[in-house]
Amino acid sequence: MSKFPERLREDLMRLGLSDYEIRAYLTLLTEGPLTAMELSRKGVIPRSKVYEVLGKLEGKGWISPGEGRPAKFSARHPREATMVWRSIRERDLRRYEEEALEELERLSSNAQEREDIIIVIGVEAALSSITNILSRCDDDIFVAIPPELTEGLEDMVRAISGRRGRISVLAPSEEVARKISGRLPGAVVRVKDDMFGGGAICGTSEVALLLGRGRGGRQYLTISADHPGLAALARSYFEHLWSLARAEA
User: Fold this and answer.
1) Strands 188-191, 167-171: parallel, antiparallel or unpaired by DSSP?
2) Residue 29 pLDDT > 70
3) Which of 76, 99, 120 lies at the terminal end of a domain, its last residue?
4) What is the CATH number of the domain that holds 133?
5) Has residue 221 got a pLDDT over 50?
6) CA distance linking residue 131 with residue 145, whole number of Å
7) Could you read off the pLDDT of 37-62 as tens digits, one per residue?
8) CA 124 to CA 99: how far, in whole Å?
9) What would the pLDDT profile of 129-186 be if each residue is shown by its tens digit?
10) Three-state DSSP class for residue 142
């Protein structure tokens, strides 16, 4: 793939395509329709993965299969492909938001009856909840740091330092990402500069979510819980944001 600019590959990865998906799309775009086996024989994708890769590209709206057997896959025009992919991502984002709101509203209504769910108010309380979870987590850690939480960056980094699990961090800017990478060499850091809310997930159960400002727009609300269902939902949303984030420069 050396004939294609490295910047193009990086941009397509930031749009959510994998390396094999990028190879397949660029080959179909520049060489015209090809069957799966023709694509594989060109050395673009291993034979064992070619149908999986083409299926994902078709699902994302970047290619379309032709009629006949074997089907020849065609690249959509770049402008059309990016528009279709944007609409798919926006639809998924709306679905994640609706699922999250439904679950969070249910949790909020039951919060008084459950000992493992706590709602706190204010950024300082949010930071305290997040650092508490991070400091005792011996599982994989996922952290999304919106601009509102950067004042507590040192506390969060200190809490994460020395943890045993895999560490994935979404930072709001290149500057913050560099600080995190410098303090946590083993962490994988990406930049997402338009996050709404944030928080931390420890493994498959503990989570602290900064939801945003409460009624009247005066204070921030945070849900802190030991709740596998909420943690799974938060993890799905984190992975969606992760797919749209860019690697640290």
Assistant:
1) parallel
2) yes
3) 76
4) 3.30.870.10
5) yes
6) 12
7) 999 888 888 989 999 999 999 999 99
8) 27
9) 899 999 989 899 999 998 888 888 999 999 998 888 899 999 999 999 999 999 998 8
10) strand
Alpha helical stretches, state H, 15-151: 19-31, 36-41, 50-59, 78-110, 123-135
State how far Cα 233 lies from the chain centre. Answer: 12
pTM over the 0.90 mark:
no
Distance CA 117, CA 226 (A): 7
In tens, the pLDDT along 62-92 reads 999 877 788 899 999 999 999 999 998 888 8
Question: In this predicted structure, what is the pLDDT of residue 116?
Answer: 66
Indicate if 222 and 112 belong to the same structural domain: yes
Please check whether residue 208 is in contact with residue 130, taking contact to mean a CB–CB distance below 8 angstroms.
yes
- 8-state DSSP, 69: S
109: its two tokens: 């209504």
Cβ atoms of 58 and 65 closer than 8 Å: yes
How are beta strands 141-144 and 206-213 bridged, if at all? unpaired
Instruction: Please report, for the domain that includes residue 53, its CATH number.
Output: 1.10.10.10
